[in-house]
Amino acid sequence: MEILFCIPGGGTSSLMYMGWQKLLKDEFTIIPLEIPGRGRLREMERASSLEEIAEGMARQVCEQANGRSYGIFGYCYGGILAYEICRILAEEGKCLPEDLYLCGTSAPFEEISVTPLLSRKEHRQDLKDMLSRFFPAYLTANTVVMEQLCEKYMEALFQKYDAEKQISDITEEDLNLEKLEDGEEKLLDYIVSFANDFFRSYSEDEA
């Protein structure tokens, strides 16, 4: 197998695979597939359905594989897309992957009941921890400030969700923070923008 197409998980983009080529350079050529409206395709119009995303990715796979052997890796939501891509290719009689890798997703023949992410109150601390891990250390040397910003963001997100029963964008006014230093204000802008985009996208993927 020469190529490994990689599909991102719920709410994320192909940027999650940035380090894979360096790790697997002696085994595969890594080609991340992007969901329209995210990451490298951020300026594109978002797709209206999972089927539309899978059909577009199936075309990309055929074009970029160009007769070479390949595999597909899908994580979480990306695992569902990977399965759909293979189903489309099989129905159209096109070249199927040599290997299909699915990680963190349910089997296609299982009935899946999706519980909205933010309604799982027992996992809310995990979500707070996850958000703080999204941001690389170079953004700030002050990890306390980073943790506080992420904590305040998640508190505001949960408060809005519990009141409205849907994910809403958080503004800096929602965070009720005391005056920040210049560098911390820039950090806050980045966190709020990134986190709003992630949870908005995750909500779309759940639907």
TrEMBL record:
Superkingdom: Bacteria
GO annotation terms (biological process): lipid biosynthetic process
Domain Thioesterase intervals: 3-155
Pfam families: Thioesterase
Classification via Gene3D superfamilies: alpha/beta hydrolase
PANTHER family to which the protein is assigned, alphabetical: S-ACYL FATTY ACID SYNTHASE THIOESTERASE, MEDIUM CHAIN, THIOESTERASE
Family per similarity comment: Belongs to the thioesterase family.
Protein's name in the database: Thioesterase domain-containing protein
Species of origin: Lentihominibacter faecis
